[in-house]
Amino acid sequence: MAKEIGGYVKLQVKGGQANPAPPIGPALGSKGLNIMEFCKQFNGRTQDKMGMVLPVVITFYKDKSFDFVIKTPPAAILLMEAAKIKKASDQPNRVKVGSVTWEQVRQIAETKMPDLNCFTVESGMKQIAGTARSMGVTIKGKAPWATEKK
Amino acid sequence: MNHIELNLTLSPEYAEILMAELAEMGYESFVETDTGLDAYIPESDFSEEKLQETLARYQPVAPVRFSWQVLEKKNWNAEWESNYAPIEVGDAVRVRALFHEPDARFRHELVITPKMSFGTGHHETTWLVMNEQLSLPHAGRAVLDVGCGTGILAILARKLGAADLLAFDIEEWAVENTRENFSLNEATEQSEVFQGTIDDVPFDQRFGGILANINRNILLNEVPRYAQHLLPGGWLVVSGFYEIDAPDIIAKAESSGLSYKRMNTRNQWAMVVFEK
Questions:
Q1: In this structure, are B31 and B162 located in the same domain?
Q2: Domain Large ribosomal subunit protein uL11 N-terminal spans what residues (chain A) (predicted)?
Q3: Cβ A34–B77 below 8 Å, yes or no?
Q4: CATH number of the structural domain spanning residue B248
Protein backbone atom coordinates (compact mmCIF):
# COMPACT_ATOMS: atom_id res chain seq x y z
CA MET A 1 0.00 0.00 0.00
CA ALA A 2 1.30 3.46 -0.84
CA LYS A 3 2.52 5.47 2.12
CA GLU A 4 0.27 8.29 3.26
CA ILE A 5 1.72 11.68 2.42
CA GLY A 6 1.97 14.13 5.31
CA GLY A 7 2.92 17.13 3.18
CA TYR A 8 5.66 18.88 1.26
CA VAL A 9 8.53 21.20 2.17
CA LYS A 10 10.16 23.36 -0.50
CA LEU A 11 13.57 24.90 0.18
CA GLN A 12 16.52 26.28 -1.76
CA VAL A 13 19.80 24.88 -0.45
CA LYS A 14 23.39 25.16 -1.65
CA GLY A 15 24.71 21.92 -3.15
CA GLY A 16 26.83 19.85 -0.75
CA GLN A 17 26.18 22.27 2.10
CA ALA A 18 22.94 21.17 3.75
CA ASN A 19 23.19 21.39 7.54
CA PRO A 20 20.70 21.11 10.38
CA ALA A 21 20.56 24.88 10.98
CA PRO A 22 17.52 26.91 9.87
CA PRO A 23 15.63 26.64 7.60
CA ILE A 24 16.27 22.90 7.14
CA GLY A 25 16.34 22.12 10.87
CA PRO A 26 13.04 23.71 11.88
CA ALA A 27 11.25 22.79 8.63
CA LEU A 28 12.02 19.07 8.89
CA GLY A 29 12.49 18.75 12.64
CA SER A 30 9.00 20.04 13.38
CA LYS A 31 7.59 17.18 11.29
CA GLY A 32 9.58 14.62 13.29
CA LEU A 33 11.84 13.78 10.33
CA ASN A 34 15.50 12.85 10.85
CA ILE A 35 17.25 16.02 9.69
CA MET A 36 20.70 14.42 9.64
CA GLU A 37 19.48 11.74 7.26
CA PHE A 38 18.23 14.41 4.86
CA CYS A 39 21.50 16.39 5.05
CA LYS A 40 23.65 13.32 4.36
CA GLN A 41 21.52 12.30 1.37
CA PHE A 42 21.23 15.80 -0.08
CA ASN A 43 24.96 16.47 0.27
CA GLY A 44 25.80 13.05 -1.15
CA ARG A 45 23.65 13.66 -4.22
CA THR A 46 24.93 17.20 -4.90
CA GLN A 47 28.71 16.79 -4.64
CA ASP A 48 29.02 17.83 -8.29
CA LYS A 49 27.06 21.06 -7.67
CA MET A 50 28.93 22.33 -4.61
CA GLY A 51 27.77 25.76 -3.50
CA MET A 52 25.15 26.18 -6.23
CA VAL A 53 21.65 27.05 -4.98
CA LEU A 54 19.34 24.12 -5.74
CA PRO A 55 15.59 23.99 -5.16
CA VAL A 56 14.58 20.82 -3.35
CA VAL A 57 11.06 19.51 -2.79
CA ILE A 58 10.76 17.13 0.13
CA THR A 59 7.74 14.83 0.40
CA PHE A 60 7.21 13.61 3.92
CA TYR A 61 4.99 10.73 4.95
CA LYS A 62 2.84 10.06 7.99
CA ASP A 63 5.31 7.35 9.11
CA LYS A 64 8.07 10.04 9.44
CA SER A 65 9.91 8.84 6.33
CA PHE A 66 10.60 11.17 3.41
CA ASP A 67 11.96 11.42 -0.08
CA PHE A 68 12.98 14.41 -2.13
CA VAL A 69 13.52 15.73 -5.63
CA ILE A 70 16.33 18.14 -6.49
CA LYS A 71 15.34 20.64 -9.17
CA THR A 72 17.53 22.61 -11.54
CA PRO A 73 19.17 25.81 -10.22
CA PRO A 74 17.22 29.09 -10.64
CA ALA A 75 17.81 30.84 -13.98
CA ALA A 76 19.30 33.91 -12.25
CA ILE A 77 21.97 31.73 -10.62
CA LEU A 78 22.88 30.08 -13.93
CA LEU A 79 22.96 33.47 -15.68
CA MET A 80 25.25 34.96 -13.03
CA GLU A 81 27.58 31.99 -13.40
CA ALA A 82 27.53 32.22 -17.23
CA ALA A 83 28.11 36.00 -17.21
CA LYS A 84 30.71 35.65 -14.40
CA ILE A 85 29.07 38.40 -12.33
CA LYS A 86 28.15 38.62 -8.65
CA LYS A 87 25.55 41.40 -8.80
CA ALA A 88 22.54 42.27 -10.90
CA SER A 89 22.03 45.79 -12.29
CA ASP A 90 20.18 48.44 -10.30
CA GLN A 91 18.99 49.94 -13.60
CA PRO A 92 18.60 46.91 -15.87
CA ASN A 93 17.29 48.94 -18.82
CA ARG A 94 20.17 51.38 -18.83
CA VAL A 95 23.14 49.91 -16.99
CA LYS A 96 24.31 46.52 -18.19
CA VAL A 97 26.43 44.48 -15.79
CA GLY A 98 27.43 41.63 -18.05
CA SER A 99 26.63 39.61 -21.13
CA VAL A 100 26.02 36.08 -22.28
CA THR A 101 25.70 34.50 -25.72
CA TRP A 102 22.56 32.97 -27.19
CA GLU A 103 24.38 29.64 -27.05
CA GLN A 104 24.72 30.07 -23.27
CA VAL A 105 21.02 30.98 -23.06
CA ARG A 106 20.25 27.78 -24.99
CA GLN A 107 22.39 25.72 -22.60
CA ILE A 108 20.63 27.25 -19.58
CA ALA A 109 17.22 26.64 -21.15
CA GLU A 110 18.15 23.03 -21.89
CA THR A 111 19.40 22.55 -18.32
CA LYS A 112 16.19 24.01 -16.93
CA MET A 113 13.74 22.35 -19.36
CA PRO A 114 12.54 19.76 -16.81
CA ASP A 115 11.37 22.57 -14.51
CA LEU A 116 10.28 25.22 -17.01
CA ASN A 117 6.64 25.57 -17.81
CA CYS A 118 7.12 25.30 -21.57
CA PHE A 119 7.29 22.71 -24.34
CA THR A 120 10.14 23.87 -26.58
CA VAL A 121 13.71 24.93 -25.93
CA GLU A 122 12.95 28.12 -27.86
CA SER A 123 10.18 29.18 -25.47
CA GLY A 124 12.49 28.21 -22.58
CA MET A 125 15.17 30.48 -24.07
CA LYS A 126 12.65 33.35 -24.16
CA GLN A 127 11.96 32.89 -20.45
CA ILE A 128 15.68 32.87 -19.65
CA ALA A 129 16.18 35.97 -21.84
CA GLY A 130 13.45 37.71 -19.80
CA THR A 131 15.29 37.01 -16.56
CA ALA A 132 18.54 38.22 -18.16
CA ARG A 133 16.83 41.50 -19.12
CA SER A 134 15.59 42.02 -15.55
CA MET A 135 19.15 41.50 -14.30
CA GLY A 136 20.76 43.91 -16.74
CA VAL A 137 22.55 41.08 -18.59
CA THR A 138 22.68 41.57 -22.36
CA ILE A 139 22.60 38.72 -24.83
CA LYS A 140 25.14 39.08 -27.60
CA GLY A 141 24.08 38.67 -31.22
CA LYS A 142 20.72 38.01 -32.78
CA ALA A 143 18.17 35.67 -31.28
CA PRO A 144 18.23 32.38 -33.22
CA TRP A 145 14.55 32.69 -34.13
CA ALA A 146 15.18 36.20 -35.57
CA THR A 147 17.69 34.63 -38.01
CA GLU A 148 15.39 31.75 -38.84
CA LYS A 149 12.62 34.12 -39.93
CA LYS A 150 14.80 35.72 -42.63
CA MET B 1 25.96 28.87 16.20
CA ASN B 2 23.00 31.23 15.85
CA HIS B 3 21.51 32.01 12.45
CA ILE B 4 19.87 35.10 11.00
CA GLU B 5 16.51 34.79 9.30
CA LEU B 6 15.97 37.58 6.83
CA ASN B 7 12.39 38.18 5.64
CA LEU B 8 12.19 40.02 2.33
CA THR B 9 9.07 41.35 0.62
CA LEU B 10 9.49 41.99 -3.09
CA SER B 11 7.99 41.10 -6.44
CA PRO B 12 8.45 37.44 -7.43
CA GLU B 13 10.20 38.49 -10.65
CA TYR B 14 13.09 39.88 -8.64
CA ALA B 15 13.04 37.39 -5.75
CA GLU B 16 15.07 34.89 -7.79
CA ILE B 17 17.61 37.52 -8.83
CA LEU B 18 18.05 38.76 -5.28
CA MET B 19 18.42 35.16 -4.12
CA ALA B 20 21.30 34.71 -6.56
CA GLU B 21 23.01 37.83 -5.18
CA LEU B 22 22.47 36.86 -1.56
CA ALA B 23 23.93 33.41 -2.29
CA GLU B 24 27.08 35.17 -3.52
CA MET B 25 27.12 37.13 -0.23
CA GLY B 26 27.21 33.94 1.87
CA TYR B 27 23.51 33.32 2.49
CA GLU B 28 23.20 29.55 2.73
CA SER B 29 19.58 28.70 2.07
CA PHE B 30 16.26 30.19 1.10
CA VAL B 31 12.53 29.70 1.28
CA GLU B 32 10.23 31.29 -1.28
CA THR B 33 7.19 32.85 0.40
CA ASP B 34 3.92 34.29 -0.89
CA THR B 35 5.34 37.78 -0.49
CA GLY B 36 8.97 37.27 -1.46
CA LEU B 37 11.79 35.36 0.11
CA ASP B 38 13.29 34.27 3.43
CA ALA B 39 17.09 33.97 3.49
CA TYR B 40 19.36 32.36 6.11
CA ILE B 41 22.98 33.03 7.07
CA PRO B 42 25.17 32.20 10.10
CA GLU B 43 25.08 35.15 12.52
CA SER B 44 28.88 35.49 12.32
CA ASP B 45 28.68 36.10 8.54
CA PHE B 46 25.80 38.60 8.69
CA SER B 47 26.42 42.27 7.90
CA GLU B 48 23.43 44.60 7.99
CA GLU B 49 25.49 47.27 6.26
CA LYS B 50 26.24 45.04 3.25
CA LEU B 51 22.62 43.96 3.14
CA GLN B 52 21.39 47.58 3.15
CA GLU B 53 23.81 48.39 0.34
CA THR B 54 22.53 45.52 -1.79
CA LEU B 55 18.85 46.20 -1.12
CA ALA B 56 19.28 49.92 -1.83
CA ARG B 57 20.32 49.01 -5.38
CA TYR B 58 17.01 47.19 -5.88
CA GLN B 59 14.78 50.07 -4.75
CA PRO B 60 14.53 51.86 -8.15
CA VAL B 61 13.39 48.72 -10.01
CA ALA B 62 11.87 46.50 -7.34
CA PRO B 63 11.08 48.04 -3.95
CA VAL B 64 12.14 45.66 -1.17
CA ARG B 65 10.97 45.67 2.43
CA PHE B 66 12.91 43.61 4.93
CA SER B 67 13.21 42.58 8.55
CA TRP B 68 15.49 40.12 10.27
CA GLN B 69 15.70 38.13 13.46
CA VAL B 70 18.22 35.98 15.28
CA LEU B 71 17.31 32.29 15.52
CA GLU B 72 19.09 30.84 18.54
CA LYS B 73 20.93 27.57 18.16
CA LYS B 74 18.80 24.68 19.34
CA ASN B 75 18.41 20.98 18.70
CA TRP B 76 15.92 21.00 15.83
CA ASN B 77 16.18 17.22 15.60
CA ALA B 78 14.91 16.68 19.16
CA GLU B 79 11.58 15.20 18.13
CA TRP B 80 13.08 12.45 15.96
CA GLU B 81 15.76 11.79 18.58
CA SER B 82 13.16 11.44 21.34
CA ASN B 83 11.86 8.16 19.96
CA TYR B 84 14.33 6.73 17.47
CA ALA B 85 14.46 2.98 17.06
CA PRO B 86 17.59 1.03 18.11
CA ILE B 87 19.86 -0.21 15.32
CA GLU B 88 21.52 -3.61 15.15
CA VAL B 89 24.73 -4.31 13.24
CA GLY B 90 24.98 -8.06 12.76
CA ASP B 91 24.44 -9.92 16.01
CA ALA B 92 27.32 -8.20 17.80
CA VAL B 93 26.44 -4.50 17.96
CA ARG B 94 23.36 -2.58 19.04
CA VAL B 95 23.06 1.21 19.02
CA ARG B 96 20.44 2.58 21.35
CA ALA B 97 19.34 5.71 23.17
CA LEU B 98 19.33 6.21 26.93
CA PHE B 99 15.57 5.64 26.95
CA HIS B 100 15.90 2.11 25.50
CA GLU B 101 16.36 -0.88 27.78
CA PRO B 102 19.77 -2.62 27.50
CA ASP B 103 19.83 -5.93 25.61
CA ALA B 104 22.38 -8.41 26.92
CA ARG B 105 22.33 -10.51 23.73
CA PHE B 106 24.68 -8.03 22.05
CA ARG B 107 28.41 -8.06 22.77
CA HIS B 108 28.67 -4.31 22.25
CA GLU B 109 25.98 -1.82 23.14
CA LEU B 110 26.55 1.81 22.20
CA VAL B 111 24.46 4.51 23.84
CA ILE B 112 24.11 7.48 21.51
CA THR B 113 22.38 10.76 22.27
CA PRO B 114 22.80 12.46 18.90
CA LYS B 115 21.73 16.06 19.60
CA MET B 116 21.65 17.04 15.93
CA SER B 117 24.90 15.27 15.04
CA PHE B 118 25.28 12.60 12.39
CA GLY B 119 25.83 8.98 13.35
CA THR B 120 23.21 6.76 14.91
CA GLY B 121 23.63 3.76 12.63
CA HIS B 122 20.36 4.49 10.83
CA HIS B 123 22.16 5.76 7.76
CA GLU B 124 23.57 3.19 5.37
CA THR B 125 27.10 4.60 5.57
CA THR B 126 27.35 4.44 9.37
CA TRP B 127 26.01 0.91 9.31
CA LEU B 128 28.47 -0.13 6.58
CA VAL B 129 31.48 1.26 8.44
CA MET B 130 30.46 -0.29 11.77
CA ASN B 131 29.85 -3.63 10.09
CA GLU B 132 33.32 -3.44 8.55
CA GLN B 133 34.95 -2.45 11.84
CA LEU B 134 33.86 -5.79 13.29
CA SER B 135 36.30 -7.57 11.00
CA LEU B 136 39.24 -5.13 11.30
CA PRO B 137 42.00 -5.35 13.94
CA HIS B 138 41.56 -2.60 16.58
CA ALA B 139 43.30 -4.02 19.66
CA GLY B 140 46.04 -1.74 20.93
CA ARG B 141 45.85 0.59 17.91
CA ALA B 142 45.54 4.35 17.80
CA VAL B 143 42.41 5.20 15.79
CA LEU B 144 41.47 8.49 14.15
CA ASP B 145 37.80 9.37 13.47
CA VAL B 146 37.56 12.07 10.79
CA GLY B 147 34.29 14.07 10.86
CA CYS B 148 33.18 12.24 13.99
CA GLY B 149 29.55 13.49 14.26
CA THR B 150 28.20 11.69 17.33
CA GLY B 151 31.53 9.86 17.78
CA ILE B 152 29.80 6.53 17.14
CA LEU B 153 32.62 5.03 15.04
CA ALA B 154 35.33 5.99 17.54
CA ILE B 155 33.23 4.55 20.36
CA LEU B 156 32.90 1.23 18.52
CA ALA B 157 36.67 1.36 17.88
CA ARG B 158 37.22 1.63 21.65
CA LYS B 159 34.83 -1.23 22.36
CA LEU B 160 36.85 -3.31 19.87
CA GLY B 161 40.05 -2.55 21.76
CA ALA B 162 41.48 0.66 20.29
CA ALA B 163 44.10 2.07 22.66
CA ASP B 164 44.05 5.77 21.74
CA LEU B 165 41.22 7.70 20.12
CA LEU B 166 41.49 11.00 18.29
CA ALA B 167 38.27 12.45 16.85
CA PHE B 168 37.46 15.76 15.26
CA ASP B 169 34.65 17.50 13.45
CA ILE B 170 34.28 20.89 11.85
CA GLU B 171 30.94 21.42 13.62
CA GLU B 172 31.00 22.75 17.16
CA TRP B 173 27.89 20.83 18.21
CA ALA B 174 29.34 17.53 16.93
CA VAL B 175 32.46 18.02 19.06
CA GLU B 176 30.34 18.65 22.18
CA ASN B 177 28.20 15.67 21.29
CA THR B 178 31.14 13.29 20.74
CA ARG B 179 32.50 14.24 24.18
CA GLU B 180 29.12 13.56 25.71
CA ASN B 181 28.79 10.20 23.96
CA PHE B 182 32.36 9.24 24.92
CA SER B 183 31.28 9.77 28.54
CA LEU B 184 28.10 7.73 28.13
CA ASN B 185 30.16 4.84 26.73
CA GLU B 186 33.18 4.98 29.05
CA ALA B 187 35.45 6.01 26.19
CA THR B 188 36.98 9.15 27.69
CA GLU B 189 40.37 7.71 28.71
CA GLN B 190 43.22 8.17 26.23
CA SER B 191 40.76 10.03 24.02
CA GLU B 192 40.88 13.48 22.51
CA VAL B 193 38.19 15.38 20.62
CA PHE B 194 38.67 18.73 18.92
CA GLN B 195 36.95 21.11 16.54
CA GLY B 196 38.88 21.39 13.29
CA THR B 197 40.08 19.56 10.21
CA ILE B 198 42.79 17.09 9.17
CA ASP B 199 45.12 20.11 8.94
CA ASP B 200 45.03 20.35 12.75
CA VAL B 201 46.35 16.81 13.26
CA PRO B 202 50.12 16.99 13.96
CA PHE B 203 52.04 16.09 10.79
CA ASP B 204 53.99 13.27 12.40
CA GLN B 205 51.12 11.65 14.29
CA ARG B 206 50.46 8.07 13.09
CA PHE B 207 47.46 5.80 13.45
CA GLY B 208 46.79 2.07 13.12
CA GLY B 209 43.31 2.82 11.76
CA ILE B 210 41.44 5.77 10.27
CA LEU B 211 37.67 6.04 9.91
CA ALA B 212 36.29 8.70 7.57
CA ASN B 213 32.56 8.77 6.81
CA ILE B 214 32.29 12.15 5.07
CA ASN B 215 31.57 12.84 1.38
CA ARG B 216 33.10 12.40 -2.07
CA ASN B 217 34.73 15.82 -2.47
CA ILE B 218 36.37 15.95 0.94
CA LEU B 219 37.63 12.38 0.57
CA LEU B 220 39.08 13.09 -2.87
CA ASN B 221 40.96 16.01 -1.34
CA GLU B 222 42.04 14.41 1.89
CA VAL B 223 42.70 10.71 1.23
CA PRO B 224 46.41 11.44 0.55
CA ARG B 225 46.59 13.09 3.98
CA TYR B 226 45.00 10.09 5.67
CA ALA B 227 47.49 7.83 3.89
CA GLN B 228 50.34 9.91 5.26
CA HIS B 229 48.98 9.55 8.84
CA LEU B 230 48.70 5.72 8.63
CA LEU B 231 51.29 3.35 10.05
CA PRO B 232 52.47 0.53 7.77
CA GLY B 233 49.79 -2.17 8.04
CA GLY B 234 47.23 0.41 9.14
CA TRP B 235 43.74 0.43 7.63
CA LEU B 236 41.58 3.23 6.24
CA VAL B 237 37.79 2.93 6.02
CA VAL B 238 36.03 5.55 3.90
CA SER B 239 32.32 6.05 3.29
CA GLY B 240 29.76 8.81 2.74
CA PHE B 241 29.66 8.55 -1.06
CA TYR B 242 27.68 6.65 -3.65
CA GLU B 243 28.83 3.48 -5.40
CA ILE B 244 29.18 5.45 -8.64
CA ASP B 245 31.91 7.63 -7.06
CA ALA B 246 33.91 4.71 -5.66
CA PRO B 247 36.28 4.29 -8.67
CA ASP B 248 37.54 7.89 -8.29
CA ILE B 249 38.14 7.44 -4.58
CA ILE B 250 39.86 4.08 -5.09
CA ALA B 251 42.13 5.61 -7.76
CA LYS B 252 43.02 8.50 -5.44
CA ALA B 253 43.83 6.13 -2.56
CA GLU B 254 45.93 3.82 -4.74
CA SER B 255 47.92 6.75 -6.08
CA SER B 256 48.55 7.71 -2.43
CA GLY B 257 50.24 4.37 -1.69
CA LEU B 258 47.25 2.51 -0.25
CA SER B 259 46.10 -0.96 -1.29
CA TYR B 260 42.44 -1.60 -2.01
CA LYS B 261 41.08 -4.40 0.21
CA ARG B 262 37.31 -4.52 -0.35
CA MET B 263 34.09 -2.61 -0.90
CA ASN B 264 30.58 -3.06 0.45
CA THR B 265 27.39 -1.24 -0.57
CA ARG B 266 23.89 -0.67 0.74
CA ASN B 267 21.15 1.20 -1.18
CA GLN B 268 23.83 2.54 -3.55
CA TRP B 269 25.93 3.99 -0.71
CA ALA B 270 29.48 2.64 -0.61
CA MET B 271 32.18 1.84 1.93
CA VAL B 272 35.75 0.98 0.90
CA VAL B 273 38.64 -0.39 2.98
CA PHE B 274 42.30 0.24 2.17
CA GLU B 275 45.55 -0.83 3.81
CA LYS B 276 48.95 0.80 3.89
A1: no
A2: 9-66
A3: yes
A4: 3.40.50.150
